[in-house]
Amino acid sequence: SVSQLESFHFQGNVDATDAILNGYRSEESASPSAIRTQDYARAETEEAQSKYRKPAKPNPENIASRRPVAMLFARLLGGHKANDQKILDPSAGKGDALIYMDYSNSITVVDPKAGHITSAATRLPASMNSYEGNFEDSEVLENIRHEQGLFDSIAMVPPIAPNSTGDSLLAYTHMENARELLNENGRMVAIVPWDILHDDTLPGYANFFEWLADENVVVAQLHKNIMGYHSAILVFDAGATEPGITLIQNNEKML
After folding, report:
1. What global pTM score does this model have?
2. What is the mean pLDDT of the chain?
3. N or C: which terminal CB in the chain sees fewer CB atoms within 10 Å?
4. What pLDDT, on the 0 to 100 scale, is given for residue 228?
């Protein structure tokens, strides 16, 4: 919901892991599967010791590797709970975005690099389904639909590095394709560079926003320290009765 999104306040240095601590102090995540105890302890230590450390520089090759991002995906999708979800990451990289999903859920990943799929297999459930290919290809999309059906939850960081606005069409296509695989009551969460949402000169911009107008989506600008660059999170709720775009942008509500 919008109110839940507004309750996230990711302030300060990403190495201090405020995102982890704030995102998981709630009644929703009281179960032991919600977060790994060891990692929570490490987060508290970092919070105490890293107040003045500069944020790490963004790494386009492993864009979703920050633990706060993985926590945010798990929280917004409810994937940290054992609830028999079917979860998809169509731009998986090395699987870092899904590391806090409960292993009882069914997880499917897509990536064009065999090495990334191999790495993902070391940190995700052995039962995960994987597809080596480009998610923008219709053949890959149809194979997933045929073999896996539709998904309850989708987490994605489309493969576009900050300031690489020439790849905007790729990011738009990944979001549109992923939405086709979401079931009627599902939720999709995507994190993208902020530029591709406000620069109307980019390739594919007009068509993407024409498509977006028929969706129910909350768009929130993320604090720069979350990803290391200006970014936004989009939360699509397929089960909403009315389409609409809700924008959270002012500093007090910035995630």
Report:
1. 0.75
2. 74
3. N
4. 76
